[in-house]
Amino acid sequence: MNPTRVLGLAALAVVGWGCASLWMHVARYLDNPRPIDSNAGLVVFSRDGGYVSYRPYEVGMEPGMIGVGVVLLVAAVLMAAVLWRPRVR
Which residues pair with 45 in a beta bridge? Predict the structure, then answer.
């Protein structure tokens, strides 16, 4: 199998895995509200007829995974362009 194709598929897999992980992380975050505490200093939201608060969102490794996948995808496209250039002439 072509190394450029392998690199491109690996890049798409990393980007897909990062996006899916980010989606699950955000869904898990929104499904676990905190009870209202007057001493916490968190912003209060209205949800399902009641009031809840959320702790500040903490970013995990997901954006980094997406970034690495995009860099790998760009590298695969550039590699393909370099390899195909002699064929176009």
Answer: 52
Domain count of the chain? 1
Q: Specify the pTM.
A: 0.76
Tokens of 29: 């975050």
pLDDT in tens, the chain (89 residues): 788 899 999 999 999 999 999 999 999 888 888 777 666 677 777 777 778 888 888 888 999 999 999 999 999 999 988 888 776 55
Which residues form the domain of 34?
Answer: 3-88
**Residue 61 CB: number of other CB atoms within 10 A?**
12
**What is the DSSP code (8-state) at residue 52?**
E
| Run of H or E including 11 | helix 3-30
